[in-house]
Amino acid sequence: MTAKKRTRPRRHHVTTSCQVTANIALRVDGEPLALELTVPGGTATAQQLLPALRILTDQLVDAAIHKVEAAGQKVSCQKGCGACCRQLVPIAPAEAHRLQTVVDALPEARRAEVVVRFAEARSRLQAADQLDTLLDTSPMTLEQRRRFGLDYFRLGIACPFLLDESCSIYHERPLACREYLVTSPVAHCAQPSASTIDCVPMPVKVSVALHRLESAQDTASASWVPLIIAPEWAQMHPAAPPTSSGPAQLESVFELLGATQSVT
Ligand code: SF4
Predict the structure, then answer these.
(1) In the chain, which end has fewer C-beta atoms inside a 10 angstrom radius, N or C?
(2) Rounded to a whole number, what is the distance in angstroms from the first to the last CA of the chain?
(3) pLDDT tens by residue, 7-51
């Protein structure tokens, strides 16, 4: 599966004194994809790019779903099934800071529940000798992360945002959550393995591009953060300062997406 950026953003126009909208034409798996993305016109943090990156991700996911459905397959994921929300979810540092903001903004009673669930998850990870590995910011290879991910899944720790088996922060959910869909039988999600789970293939992953963008901007930062420790991690690591303009960073994301063509 390949994705090819056919053109650079075709047109920029200023929508407010500080926001810039780019009209972008992509070609994904041979199919055209038109996007309108708005980003800060001036110097911006990676976190400020998240609204645009979510739109980009959602449209790429829609295109990927369309492709599997055209091939006669059906996405198995449905509301009320949160099996995958017990997996190790890698998010970008900017997303960890955003989730901290989301938690802080919850109504007090709900915020208290979520804080307790993060604390309980932390205790279980500590008891299982997995916490130190998760807090260690040195990068893991994909194979190391796969093996660790299986051990983590066996603990059965539900994401603290999972409520009645549905995501309680659906519009704020990280990019990796948006990109994970399966066509294999729902029953297989309780015991995921490479041989039983068929993911909807994503031609490119915006989540990976964001990890790489942030690593390039701040080499001291983590390349990824486990969602399950996101608020704690965000409190321990101040957000990276803004580096370049929103349009320049968006351009970098598209370049990085070109470099992630083989990621599935
Ligand atoms: S953020 Fe939402 S979608 Fe992602 S793992 Fe948590 S509950 Fe699931």
Answers:
(1) C
(2) 9
(3) 333 434 444 459 999 888 888 777 888 899 999 999 999 999 999
Please count the structural domains in the chain. Answer: 1
Q: Does residue 32 belong to any structural domain of this protein?
A: no
What are 41-82's pLDDT values in tens digits?
999 999 999 999 999 999 999 999 999 999 999 999 988 889
Other beta carbons within 10 angstroms of residue 262's beta carbon come to 8
Note whether residue 139 is domain-resident.
Answer: yes
- Whole-number Å distance between alpha carbons of 105 and 10: 37
Q: What is the pLDDT of residues 147-168, one digit of tens each?
A: 899 999 999 999 999 999 999 9
Residues in contact with ligand 1 (CB, 6 Å cut-off): 82, 85, 89, 159, 161-162, 167, 169, 173-174, 177
CB-count exposure of residue 174 (10 Å: 0-12, 13-18, 19+): buried
Q: State which of 84, 173, 207 you would mutate to test the pocket of ligand 1, scoring each by most atoms of that ligand within 8 A of its C-beta.
A: 173
21 domain-assigned: no
In angstroms, rounded to a whole number, what is the distance separating the alpha carbons of residues 104 and 127? 27
